[in-house]
Amino acid sequence: MRQPIVIAPSILSADFARLGDDVRKAVDGGAGWVHFDVMDNHYVPNLTIGPLVCKALRDFGISVPIDVHLMIEPVDRIVPEFAAAGATSISFHPEASAHVDRTIQLIRSFGCSPGLVFNPATPLEWLDWTLEHLDLVLLMSVNPGFGGQKFIPSTLQKLRAARQRIDASGRAIRLEVDGGINAETVAAAAAAGADTFVAGSAVFGRADYSAVISDLRVRAESAVA
Ligand code: DX5
Ligand code: ZN
């Protein structure tokens, strides 16, 4: 079953010198979740932010779900720290964990929602023995590491396949898409089955966050209506 549409602005494209204010602007503009990209200059060739910044956003008063996307290797050591810092969901790449099932259980044991992330070349077979334990399936529509890249069209076919698996499971699992989501691509991703849309460069730095977020939401909703 498809979940209500959520637009999740990625703070990778936010103004890091004014992060709290910029994230608050996105939330006030209708962001359902905040997407929090964690990069380690090892699993991906970029370096971003960690649990301290997640906690700082909570202390600043950001109360919407914080959707932590770990692009780091190894995964397990940092999970308790993100849970303590106020993460709502924690998603990781299966290639970055030696024991995927253990990592999923670990995330759950700290009270967070576990998600598995699929790179463009990562097969959905990783869901065969994990889907029943997940709350979130995140398909990357770009290679992870940077904002502002172009949506990879084969993601649509993969979204349809993931949607079928989720529907067959009968569980309320979100299907999230991340990378190159904007006014041109959001409707196709929604029609292919996504219900949760990460958008970094399409939202942050724009003149009117509220206008962009509601435009993305309307396009996604009308694609599935
Ligand atoms: C890329 C990140 C994305 C990124 C998306 O590795 O996971 O969340 O911020 O940025 P846009 O929306 O600009 O493609
Ligand atoms: Zn991301």
Fold and architecture overview:
This protein is an alpha/beta fold and 225 residues long. It has one domain (6-224): Alpha-Beta Barrel (TIM Barrel). Helices cover 32% and strands 18% of the residues. The chain has helices at 19-28, 51-60, 79-84, 100-109, 155-169, 186-191, 209-224; strands at residues 6-9, 34-39, 66-71, 89-92, 113-118, 136-140, 174-178, 196-199. Strands 1-8-7-6-5-4-3-2 form an 8-stranded parallel sheet. The chain is globular, with a radius of gyration of 16 Å. The model has no long low-confidence stretch (mean pLDDT 98). The site of D-xylitol-5-phosphate has 21 residues, from strand 2 and strand 8.
In short:
It contains 7 helices and 8 strands. The protein has 225 residues and is α/β, with parallel strands linked by helices.
SSE map:
Layout: E1 6-9, H1 19-28, E2 34-39, H2 51-60, E3 66-71, H3 79-84, E4 89-92, H4 100-109, E5 113-118, E6 136-140, H5 155-169, E7 174-178, H6 186-191, E8 196-199, H7 209-224
Parallel strand pairs: 1-8, 2-3, 3-4, 4-5, 5-6, 6-7, 7-8
Bound molecules: D-xylitol-5-phosphate (DX5) and zinc ion.
What attributes does this structure have?
225 residues, TIM Barrel, eight-stranded parallel sheet, 7 helices, binds D-xylitol-5-phosphate, binds zinc ion
| Overall pLDDT | 98
Order of helices and strands: EHEHEHEHEEHEHEH
Which structural class matches the secondary elements? Answer: alpha/beta
Q: Tell me what portion of residues adopts beta-strand conformation.
A: 15-25%
